[in-house]
Amino acid sequence: MAVTLTDKAAERIRHFLDSRGSGLGLRLAVKTTGCSGMAYVVEFVDEANPEDTSFEAHGIKIFVDPKSLIYLDGTELDYAKEGLNEGFQFNNPNVKDTCGCGESFTV
Fold first, then answer.
1. Structural domains of the chain in order of their starting residue, each with its CATH number
2. How many helices (H) and strands (E) does the chain have?
3. What pTM, to 2 d.p., does this model score?
């Protein structure tokens, strides 16, 4: 089981953590919501939970709770700028379908 980051995503997370001035890393999770059923959650981590699984890529720690890990296993987090839009992109091999607005997904 693994969650990975691209170089661009790691650089952006490092920038956010440096600007914030604190934090152990980033938490990736999923929650039930949206038209397709699930949505991604991204949060700063100041204190790891004992049940978290942690991954390290490019010097950045990623924390995932056990319930989310089954949906995020194999996911690569990327960061992209396309025209006026920029943000994190989840390259998740477990996704079977996404809603039309791109905010939620099913597995």
1. 4-98 (2.60.300.12)
2. 2, 9
3. 0.84
